[in-house]
Design brief:
The structure is a homohexamer of 139-residue chains. Chain A is α+β, with helices and mostly antiparallel strands. The first copy, chain A, contains four helices and five strands; from the N terminus they run E-H-E-H-E-H-H-E-E. Chain A has helices spanning 25-32, 65-76, 84-87, 98-115, and strands spanning 3-16, 41-52, 82-83, 121-130, 133-138. A five-stranded mixed beta sheet of chain A has the order 3-1-2-4-5. The two termini of chain A are 17 Å apart. In chain A, 45% of the residues are buried. Chains in contact: A-B, A-C, A-E, B-C, B-D, C-F, D-E, D-F, E-F. The A-E interface holds A 11, 13-16, 34-35, 37-44, 80-83, 85-87, 130 and E 11, 13-16, 34-35, 37-44, 80-83, 85-87, 130. Strand 5 of chain B pairs antiparallel with strand 1 of chain C.
C-alpha cells in the first residue's frame, strides 16, 4: 500500500513578464501589477520533482541520480538563463506564470520519462518562484 | 486527474501559553512543561495554504495573489502581534496549541473563501511553530 | 473527512558508503560513482515524520512532544554518529541508500508506535540526505 | 594575524511587548506600531555567538561544545519560554527591543566567560528576531 | 569600543544580462558564459544592510524600522520587477554584475542616509544573487 | 577605504571521527563524546570563502566564477566523499575537527591563489558542520 518516492530539487534562473495581448493596458495592469512591464524581471526558480518507483534490490536505489539530474537539466534548459517571453516559443501567446511554467516543465518531464522508458511515475512537481509562492501539480 | 494547487506562505508573530483550567498545577506542568506559565512566550509562526483551482486561460493564474494575500492577512490578523490567550476570545477556554491555532486559521479561511465565492478548494493548511514542528490539516 | 497531522523534524549525522558485494569494482563504480569507496563519507540527515491522530479535547495536542522526541531519538540512535556499513547489522549486506535508510527508520518507528500502543497513524516519513535530495515513504 | 572563531547558533522562544512608560499612548503607538499592545506577542529568537580562542593542539578544538552549549542555555534561560516584560526584572523599565535583548544576552555571556575563566574572547553576538531583522554587537 | 548594528534583509526580483559592448561576441561568451544573452535571465536578489548607531535610551531602538523599510524599498525600486539593462540608465554601459548592482544600491542608500540626516553609519551591504553567491561592500 | 568581496558557498560530504592517539579511551570519551568512535560518522559540510579584489572596469567582476568554482572544487576534493581519518594523510595524527578542517582548506586555498597569481585577498573562510556550528578564520 505504501509508496516510496525520491525527490530532487534544482535551481534555475529565468526572466519573464506577464502580458496578455488580448488585454488592454489597464487590464494587464489590473491583473498583473508590477509583473506587467515591457522588459520583464526575473527569479531564481526552484523545481522539485517526486518520482515513485520500485527500490532495486541490489542497488537500493529507485533510480540512478546521474540520469535523473541530466533529465532535469534538459527539462529546464530552455528556461534556465533565458527570458521565457522572448526565447521560448511556447510562451509567445501564453503568460509565463508559475502555473504555466510548471505545466511546461511537467510536459517535458513526462515526455522524457516516456522516451527513456523509465519505470517511474511522476507523483508531484513543484515550482517555487520564491520561498513564499509556489505551484504544485499532483498526478 | 491531475490537480494544480497554488501555495502561499506567510509569517506572523504571536504570544501564547498552554494552560488547561480543568487541570491542576501539577497536571498542567506534566502535560505542557515549559509551555505552561503565567505570562506566556511566543513564536514566529508560518502559515502555508494550498489551494486548488482552474488555471484561467487568459491570465495563466489560479487566482489573483493580491486578493489571496489580503485574505491571509485577514485570517491571521487576530493572532498577529497578539497574545492569543488574552486577546482572542476563541482561546479563552481552549489551549492555543499549534493544532488548535491551525484549526482556527482553517475555519476563518474556509469562511472567507465561501464569502468571496472563490472557485477554489482548500487542499491543505500547514502551521509551523518552528522549523522542527508543524501541524497540517489536509482536506 | 479532513485529517490532522503533526510533523516533527530531527537532524542526525551518519557515515556510509555504497558497495554491493555482488557487483564487480567496475559495476560498483558505474552504479554508485563517488559514493563507492573503501571508507565512506557522510551526511547531516534530516528525518521528518508526519503522524495523524485525534486532537485531545483537553490538551489540544495530537500527542505529547516529549514522548515523540524520545521515540525519534531512539529510532535514529543506531545511525546517529555511526558508520552504518560497519556499525549497523541491517546494512552488512544492504546498500545504505537514502531509500533503505528511510525504510529502516520506518520499520523502527512503526514497531515503536505499536509497542507504545500509540493511537497514531504514521502518514509519511521523509529522509533528506541534502536539501536537494530526499526520499518519502507515504503510507 | 589571522583569527579563528567558533560560532554557535541557538533558538529560543520569547514573548514581549514594546511600551515606554514615559510615553503617551499616542507616542507609544507612533514609535512602536503593532509591537505596542497590552499583552504582547512573540518570536522564535535565534542567538549566534562567535568566540575567538586558541585551537588546542591535542583536541583540535577551540572549546568543548558541551560546556559552550550549557553556557548559552543558561544565558537565554530567563528569556526562553518567558514573557520578558513580566518575567525579567531587567525589562521592567526597559523596552525589550532586539537591541536591548542582545545587550542583555551579551552581559550575561561576558559574565559567564569571566566566571568560567574561559580563555576565549567574545567577538560578536547576533540576535535574530526574524530572518529579516537582527542586531549584532561586535566587540 | 563595541559597535551595535541593526541588519535588515529584503528580497527583490530583477532581470539582467551580461554584455560588454566593447567585447566581441567570443569575448562576451568567454567572460560571461550563460549570463551573456540577448534577452537576459533573472534572480530573486536579497539585499542585507547593516547600520551602526546609538541605541535610543527611551525607545531601545537604533532606528525606526518603518523608515528603514521605506528607504530600502526606495533604494531597490528601480531594480525591483525591472530588467536593469533596459530600464536603468546606470546600466546602459555598465555590466549589471552582482558587484555593480551592490555598488548601485550602496550609492543610493548612502545618499538617502545623508538626505534624511540619519545618525547612522552604513557598515556593510550584502547583495545575494543566490544562496551560493553574494557580494559584500564593507565600509 | 571600503572593501568589496565576493563570497562563494559550496557543499561537500565527508566522514570523520575524533580520536587523539595520545589520549586514553576515557580521555577520548571525555573530550569527544559521541564523536569518538571506531568507524566515524559524517556531515554535509558547507564552505564559504570571501575574497577581496578590484572590480574589473570592463567585466564588472572581481573574478571569473568558473575559475573560482574550479579552485574550490579542488580545495575540498580530498575531503569530499571521503573519510578524512582514513583517506587524508594530514589527518593521520590530527583530529579532524571543524577547526582543523577549516585550517586545511585555508592552506590549500591560499596555495592555489598564489599558484594562480590571483590578484585576490582571502578575507574569511567559514566551515559549517551544521547550521548550528561553524568555524571562521578571518585573515
Amino acid at each position: 500500500m505504501k509508496q516510496t518516492t525520491v525527490a530532487r530539487r534544482k535551481l534555475f534562473s529565468t526572466a519573464h513578464l506577464y502580458r496578455q495581448s488580448k488585454f488592454s493596458h489597464a487590464e494587464n495592469l489590473a491583473h498583473f501589477g508590477a509583473c506587467f512591464s515591457e522588459h520583464g524581471h526575473g527569479h531564481n526558480y526552484v523545481i522539485v520533482v517526486e518520482l515513485a518507483g520500485e527500490i532495486d534490490q541490489q542497488t537500493g536505489l529507485i533510480m540512478n541520480l546521474t540520469d535523473l539530474d541530466q533529465w532535469l537539466t534538459d527539462v529546464v534548459s530552455p528556461l534556465d538563463h533565458h527570458h521565457v517571453n522572448f526565447d521560448v516559443p511556447e510562451f509567445q501567446d501564453t503568460v509565463p506564470t508559475t502555473e504555466n511554467l510548471a505545466l511546461y516543465c511537467r510536459t517535458r518531464l513526462l515526455r522524457r520519462l516516456q522516451t527513456e522508458k523509465a519505470p517511474l511515475q511522476l507523483v508531484s512537481l513543484k515550482l517555487y518562484e520564491t520561498d513564499d509562492l509556489w505551484v504544485e501539480i499532483t498526478e
